[in-house]
Write a structure and sequence with these properties.
This protein is mostly beta strands. It contains one helix and twelve strands. The chain has a single domain, classed as Clam (outer membrane lipoprotein receptor (LolB), chain A), CATH 2.50.20. The longest helix has 12 residues.
Length: 237
């Protein structure tokens, strides 16, 4: 579970801070993105739901060993985001960044630390990970409507996407990769991503999958700091 939780937090949070480093992203360019690549300037707020799971491929049929879910609420103005992780519907982690501070839920209290939140207003997930030229390796599967949003469905086997679900420094060797993603026809933002990667970890084959879906596009999120009575500065008793 811990390994999968690390991956999920890295995917959803690393891009939220101005100190985050781009894992797979390309340097900014004025050149137009390929038609199959998502754009982000049409999104000012959203809710992102994601599910990650790991399967043991040494079993027949494969057995799901770990499954985690994540909820990320985001708003650009004022910049704020709230991340929750769940295991079997039980809350595991809750992190809130708003007003220049980050709060981590610990029991009945929120531990507060200063944060260098980015003022760029870009969505804090996937922008830094998705290769800028992803569309050049994708093919169109068809058109679909997801939660009332008309989308174009693309598929790619771009091996670079394996880095999404690989734990750095753990000696994991990625194998086959397939990603299906759906881009909204209006606004060209990423509506949904389904990614599957086979890996070898500790000498055993496994499969990790990730499903991301954006909802509540450009609707108010009303993210606010926790009540002062529940806040405790990190490092103070």
């Amino acid at each position: 579970m811990r390994r999968l939780l690390i991956i999920g937090l890295a995917i959803l949070l690393t891009g939220c801070s101005s100190s985050g480093r781009a894992g797979l992203s390309q340097p900014p360019t004025d050149a137009p993105a390929p038609a199959a690549a998502p754009r982000w300037n049409s999104l000012t707020s959203y809710t992102l739901w994601s599910t990650m799971q790991e399967e043991d491929l040494t079993r027949t049929p494969p057995v799901v060993t770990t499954q985690l879910s994540f909820e990320l609420r985001y708003q650009a103005q004022p910049l704020a985001y709230l991340l929750r992780s769940y295991r079997a519907d039980a809350l595991v982690t809750e992190i809130l960044t708003v007003g220049g501070s980050t709060y981590v839920k610990a029991g009945a209290k929120w531990l507060q630390t200063p944060t260098a939140a980015s003022a760029e207003g870009a969505p804090p997930f996937l922008v830094r990970q998705l290769p800028a030229d992803l569309g050049r390796t994708a093919r169109i599967v068809g058109t679909e409507t997801i939660a009332g949003v008309a989308t174009t469905h693309y598929r790619t086997t771009d091996a670079r996407l394996a880095e999404f679900l690989r734990v750095a420094g753990q000696g994991e060797q990625p194998g086959a990769t397939q990603a299906d993603y759906w881009i909204a026809n209006q606004g060209r933002y990423l509506k949904q991503l389904a990614l599957a990667v086979t890996l070898t970890a500790d000498g055993r084959p496994l499969r990790r999958t990730l499903l991301l879906t954006i909802q509540d596009e450009n609707l108010p999120q009303n993210i606010a700091p926790p009540p002062a009575a529940q806040v405790q500065e990190f490092g103070r008793p």
